[in-house]
Write a structure and sequence with these properties.
Layout: H1 2-9, H2 13-21, E1 28-30, E2 33-35, H3 38-48
Antiparallel strand pairs: 1-2
């Protein structure tokens, strides 16, 4: 999930991990993989981007 989101946002996977560790992007780790719920992703995008998410 981290890699896909990083590609979508055109940032590095480390940037996404940093946002998770800093509490800016809510995520949970399951079986060694970061899981980001849709609602949390939409909230993050609303707060941290110029995208109009309608």
């Amino acid at each position: 999930m981290v890699r896909e989101l990083a590609e979508f946002l055109v940032v590095s996977p480390n940037t996404i991990r940093k946002e998770i560790y800093q509490g800016k992007l809510r995520a949970s780790k399951r079986s060694g993989t970061w899981i980001i719920e849709r609602r949390d992703l939409l909230q993050y995008l609303e707060n941290h981007s110029n995208l109009n998410m309608e």
